[in-house]
Amino acid sequence: MLLQATQLSCIRQDRVLFEQLSLQLNAGELLQIAGKNGAGKSSLLRLLANLATPEDGHIQYLKYSLTQAADDYAANLCYIGHHSGIHEHLTAIENISFWRASTGVAAADDYPLLAKLGLAGLEDIPCRMLSAGQQRRVSLARLWFTPRKIWILDEPFTALDQAAIALLQQHFLTHLQRGGGIILTTHQPLTLQYPEMRKLELAYRW
């Protein structure tokens, strides 16, 4: 077991998004969080990423509470939210160099990676000049070199074309085959057959 949440409750602006919610993520498994807009999908991901605190319930990483294992968990988590999380004044190459340095990953020639992601010729342009889809590709590039086991991704396919979505889904499969785990939200259909995949549907509560 990589991650387990037990009896979670979440309240936002006096509205109960969900309560007594439990889930588990195992190595090699993809868990899709589904539900209508406003059901609490992003809020749940933020709780699981230890970026917010639930009203009730607790979360465990490798059988340790996040309070006990916060540093170890952070070192093994890659969270990408709705926003790209890039430095817009930096180029794509500079953003990747920053992520490598800040996470202790050795420097490398990342031009081939950016070309693979459809960014050939755009590597040295400030990211503020890139389209939303191109910025998203820069943000997602870290998934190709991060050693972190748990990926929590909020709408990772946003602004991507079908070719990029297919490439990313294939990379998900590679990560799962290496023993990683993925929790994500998406309005796009998952077209690959993953060996271990579950869906958790959140009901919208008035």
UniProtKB/TrEMBL annotation:
Pfam families noted in UniProt: ABC_tran (PF00005)
Statement: the UniProt record of this protein carries the keyword Translocase: yes
Keywords, in A-Z order: ATP-binding, Cytochrome c-type biogenesis, Membrane, Nucleotide-binding, Translocase, Transport
Name of the protein in its database record: Heme ABC transporter ATP-binding protein CcmA
Domain ABC transporter as annotated: residue spans: 3-203
Matching SMART domains: AAA
GO biological process, one term: cytochrome complex assembly
Gene3D superfamilies on file: P-loop containing nucleotide triphosphate hydrolases
Signal peptide: none
SUPFAM superfamilies, sorted: P-loop containing nucleoside triphosphate hydrolases (SSF52540)
Domain of life per record: Bacteria
Keyword Hydrolase annotated: no
InterPro entries in the record: AAA+_ATPase, ABC_transporter-like_ATP-bd, ABC_transporter-like_CS, ABC_transptr_haem_export_CcmA, P-loop_NTPase
Transmembrane segments: none
Molecular functions per Gene Ontology: ATP binding; ATP hydrolysis activity; transmembrane transporter activity
